[in-house]
């Protein structure tokens, strides 16, 4: 029994590694042709081009792992069935659970490895990848200028910042507006506008702006200034926290960001969907393996390898359709974050278990 499990595990791992290498290779080749023109026209160096794709590999691995698991499951089991090894194992009294346990266990280990990868490796490599593409190739002043041209931040004291751009390297903001509201009534009492705001090391210096004061009836008075220092609570790191893209953040950072936004009074439903999406995606590998096992065995009775792969890929496509739709509905507030990210997984786990229980039946439905 132990030898057979090792044999199945070896077959599965060999197929999985082959699928991963093939998928990552195809992804890199296609992406390289898409990016090559921009690297050449923007005078990016060859070393930057190579580093960009090296840094992208962890992201591709985590993205393609579920599809690779599904294909590896199908190819392994269909290969065993075609050589009558599966029949021989079951004739010797080995249950289907015993035969497929190495595949499911390995899929779970791979899923946990992807969680580790997404938590400690992918955020840093994604940040380096984006820095090469947006700063060194496209010529943005900083990494985050590309996606955060209009930044908002609520202060713990109730004031609200808005700026056109923020340079985290030099700690300089441009086209800044700072709004102060009454704590008891949602009425603006003061507004500060400045063309430039710079951090000196212990305070923010506002340059070329105006200070407007409001009364219940409307604008009360306006004072213009060339240079002015205002007592504000925020420091540069407070603005740096909101600059990262989702792929550049670990689950811990995303959760801390949610807590900060909640303390500032923002709606964090969409952020919680992104967090659960990040956590649930690696475990799609286990879901697809569980669904792929009975589908592989069933379809191997009716057709060849290509037929089995086609059936399994169709089911995989169906799962990702449901998954993407559920995530979209969660971001729009129709589903709760937990249901949006984990609901499709639970649904297809149920489908996979049902197909396993009815595997020896010639009918899909026991009627």
What this model shows, in words?
- This protein is α+β, with helices and mostly antiparallel strands.
- The protein has 2 domains: 2-135 and 274-357, no CATH class; 149-236, no CATH class.
- It has helices at residues 2-41, 46-82, 85-91, 96-120, 122-137, 236-240, 251-263, 269-280, 284-300, 305-331, 337-357; strands at 151-154, 160-167, 172-181, 188-199, 204-215, 218-229.
- The chain has a 6-stranded antiparallel sheet with strand order 1-2-3-4-5-6, with no helix packed on it.
- Helix 1 (2-41) runs antiparallel to helix 2 (46-82) and helix 2 crosses helix 9 (284-300).
- The protein is elongated.
- The model has no long low-confidence stretch (mean pLDDT 86).
Q: What attributes does this structure have?
A:
single chain, 367 residues, alpha+beta, 2 domains, 6-stranded antiparallel sheet, 11 helices, transmembrane, cell membrane, LptG/LptF_permease
| Helix segment tally | 11
Q: What is the radius of gyration?
A: 27 Å
Biggest beta-sheet profile = 6 strands, antiparallel
Helical/strand content category: alpha+beta
Helix content: 55-70%
Arithmetic mean pLDDT: 86
The strand order across the widest sheet is 1-2-3-4-5-6
Strand percentage lies at: 15-25%
> H/E series, N to C?
HHHHHEEEEEEHHHHHH
Question: What's the count of strands?
Answer: 6
User: End-to-end distance, in Å?
Assistant: 35 Å
Low-confidence stretches: none
Shape: elongated
Number of domains: 2
Pfam families: LptF_LptG
Transmembrane segments: 12-33, 53-81, 93-117, 279-297, 304-323, 335-357
Subcellular location: Cell membrane
Protein name: Putative Permease, YjgP/YjgQ family
